[in-house]
Amino acid sequence: MAKQGDLRMTRSFETGGAPHLPPRTTVAAVMLQVLLALVPGVLAYTWFFGPGMLIQIMLATVFALLFEALMLRWRGRSLKPFINDYSAVVTAVLFALCIPPLAPWWISCIAMLFAIGFAKHLYGGLGQNVFNPAMVGYVVVLISFPQVMTAWLPPLALAEYSPGLVDSLAIIFTGQFPATGGWDMLTQATPLDTLKTGVESGRMLSEISNSPIFGDYGGMGWEWIAIWFGLGGFFLLYKRTINWHVPVAVIGTVILFSLPFWLAAPSSNPFPLQHVFSGGLVLAAFFIATDPVSGCASNRGRLIFGAGVGIITLVIRRWGGYPDGVAFAVLLMNMAAPLIDRYTRPRMYGE
Amino acid sequence: MNRATLKKPQPVELAHEAGSRSHHFHGGLRLRHNKTISCLDPVVRPPLPELLVVPLLQHAGDVAEPFVRVGERVLKGQQIGQCQPCAAIHSPVSGRVEALENRPMSHPSGQPGPCVVIRPDGLERWVELKPVRLWENASPETLIAKIRDCGLAGLGGAVFPTHAKMRDGRNRKIHTLILNGSECEPYISCDEMLMREQADKIILGARVLRRALGAERVLIAIGDPMEAVQKALTRSVKLAECKSISVVKVTPIYPEGGERQLIQALTGLEVPAGGRPSDLGLICQNVATAAAVADAVVEGRPLIERYITLTGNGISHPRNFQALLGTPYSHLVAACGGYTNGVARLVIGGPMMGYSIASDEAPVVKASNCLLALTRSDIADPQPEMPCIRCGECARVCPAMLLPQQLHLQIRTGLWDQVQEYGLSACIECGCCDYVCPSHIPLVEWFRYGKGEQRKRALEIEASELARRRFEGRETRLLRLQQEQLEKMTRKKHALKDKAQRDSRIRDSIARAESRHGETGGSADDT
Q: Which end of chain A has fewer CB atoms within 10 angstroms, the N or the C?
């Protein structure tokens, strides 16, 4: 073994695959960034509609994590990397932002069961879901409990009575109304709802918009919430967590598509910006339709996806049975996403 | 793709403008360079190691056939191995062949391979060197043959045999030679140090290469922050009074040193898919290869040493060496003060595309541009692999403009036709997608596996095609034989029939004769 002795003392090392650099980001970091971007919108929400929304976010998060853990256990997966990747929390928060602030607690429970249990885990868990889980949860409760889901609070500024934290908790958990009034006094139709029923009953748009629940463009308060969500969206764009394609396509399509209607009959069709600032459009454009798992992979695909969301939303708002159609639009486009991907493979280098 | 370039001759014309302004390529990453730490000391030759281990496999392809036997004396620069399509292998020292055996090599597989182990005698006796006399007037064929005999291969890391690339370029009308000195991977600084210290040699090599190719001009592409390099190269170009050589800077966005990305950065053009840079009239060589060409042609010296960077937080005094091929890495590490305490991983090459080795016993080979010793904090703990969330960050950084997330899924589910359609073969394995993936999916590993599977499938298809052709050939041959048989039989039948007729005619005539005979005479002999 003279040869061995000739060599200098050598050392052994563990090996590993390239790149030999610390990872740049993690799934959890991406999800946290989304949550962070939602903060301004959530604060604006609370400012205009009281603390109910915060309670709903808590509730939905608890149920989401519960079902996530149960499903992981049931599927025989380890909890560790999945339960703290924040993806269930994002689903929960996005869902909570869509429901009335004083909806009863079991709404969240049922919605999260369908969102996390059915839409997410039965399709294979994180990354495998065809449909946006938050929207599945929302649509399930919207269709099943229409009355509860349309009982919105008026903005604080217009309310005769606004429930504080304790009252909100009581209403959400026990269904007991505070002594000062009942549901009718407490809640009100959303601006989009008012608009729809108003136009359908033949009133002029200018007449409807005189109602105090409308602001400059959207509903009172709603337009500010939309702006704050938009700001969060810009943060995500700046951080390159989302691409510009989907939000630009959604909002651009809504404006372009509603403009001719408004020009042709301004008395019965809302101004394009009113569409943008009403309902959940801005939230959907930046946070929901941009969900990469259930969306399109290529930039061209994302543009088509966003445009589809915009058009379907408007069609439902104008001719459908629901005041807002963003959730349905997103789910319908989720179905189309694989097909769009198939036809929008980007050009490769040298092709 | 040839058809496309023939139809539109513009790309080649546009390629003449190479280097006139800078362009972008898709994706890429801005990385911390970490190059300065290894550029502080001038490059020296380390002391002679006690043993040199020269692997007979230095690049993709076949293992070279050794020319020498155990116990044989070899001279420095003597050829010790050769295989037909690859580059020749030479002894880096004078000494005695100690063994021909399998040893740990510098190879991504980590498998030991056949090596020639040489014990140097310390005399450094050279084999008789045969430079090309008056290379300025020599024919390109002579130059390329010399390059082949001296064992030159691309020193940027891909180690493609230089003569093969040159011959291909020679056949295809090259107008611009691009010398790649952009060295895009972090940490690696061997090309930068070479350009600083041996600029004259690089320029000389560039002129030789230009003559061998018949190219009009030479572009030396360097990274943007390489001030010292630019100064050195510009001075050498001036000294050589060579107007057709120019130095251009490219923006340091990894992987700007990739051949196709560099061409795009210099010309704004893309090498056609499935094609080569020569389709645009361009050819790329590494700056270190150019220096080795000067050594080979002008001095007759074969490729037996190269610049190599030893760096990273795991090395006490990071620096560059001019090391003999076959020097064990452990020897080089000792020569720069050994490891630091926290060393955790050894990487050959840079952090993006390099591969880790299990033992520092492995030797320096033609491909070794860098030995990177990383500490635990440089690489961080291995992260659990999560499912793909289709965030698309990989597609955003992919310089080949692919959709890595889709490819990954297709490879995992074995949709090979889609894998083909989504352009797996265009992947340059730069590792950008891997680095940005929030789910820590080892994408490049999957892509290498996918490419292997594709090759296997292509071979299988070829084999089955061959089998089909063989079967069909046999069928037609059998059919032909059968027909021939049939024809033969019918011919025979006819012949027999003819014979039978003839026989019957004969019999008839005999009978007739006999009857006539019977009528005239008795029938005593009738039986």
A: N
Sorted by sequence, the CB contacts under 8 Å of residue A335 that are 6+ apart come out as A130, A131
| Chain B contact present for A347, CB below 8 A | yes
Question: What CATH fold (topology level) applies to the domain B11-311?
Answer: Rossmann fold (3.40.50)
Is B390 an 8 Å CB contact of chain A? yes
- What's the angle, vertex CA B313, arms to CA B308 and CA B317, rounded to 5? 60
Q: Are B413 and B404 in contact (CB under 8 A)?
A: no
In this complex, is the C-beta atom of A4 within 8 Å of any C-beta atom belonging to chain B?
Answer: no
Question: Which of A7, A17, A27 is nearest residue B361 as measured by Cβ atoms?
Answer: A7
**Domain assignment of residue A197, yes or no:** no
pTM of the shown model: 0.84
How far B243 CA lies from chain A's nearest CA (Å)? 32
Spans of all domains in chain B: 11-311, 319-379, 382-510
Peptide bond between residue B104 and the one before it cis (omega within 30 degrees of 0): no
DSSP string, A304-324: HHHHHHHHHHHHHHHHSSSS-
Yes or no: say if B213 and B173 are a contact pair by the CB < 8 Å rule.
Answer: no
Q: Looking at this predicted complex, what is its ipTM?
A: 0.85
Q: Specify if A206 maps to a domain.
A: no
When CB atoms are compared, the residue of B110, B386, B399 closest to A126 is B386
Q: Does A11 touch chain B (CB under 8 A)?
A: yes
Judged by CB atoms closer than 8 Å, whether chains meet at A297 and B434 is answered as no
For the domain made up of B382-510, give the CATH fold.
Fumarate Reductase Iron-sulfur Protein; Chain B, domain 2 (1.10.1060)
The number of distinct structural domains making up chain A is 1
Residues 110-129 of B with CB under 8 A from A: 110, 117, 119
From residue A247, alpha-carbon distances to A119, B126, B352, B469 in Å are 24, 70, 33, 56
**Residue B26 forms contact with A (CB below 8 Å):** yes
B242 has a chain A CB within 8 A of its CB: no
A25-48 pLDDT tens trace: 999 999 999 999 999 999 998 888
**Cβ contact, residue pair A16, B330, below 8 Å:** no
> A74 is in which domain, residue-wise?
26-187
Question: Residues near A173 by Cβ (< 8 Å), separated by ≥ 6?
Answer: A104, A105
Please indicate, yes or no, if residue A221 is contained in any of the structural domains.
no
The pLDDT tens digits of the residues spanning B80-116 come to 988 777 788 999 999 999 999 999 888 887 788 899 9
In a domain, A267, yes or no: no
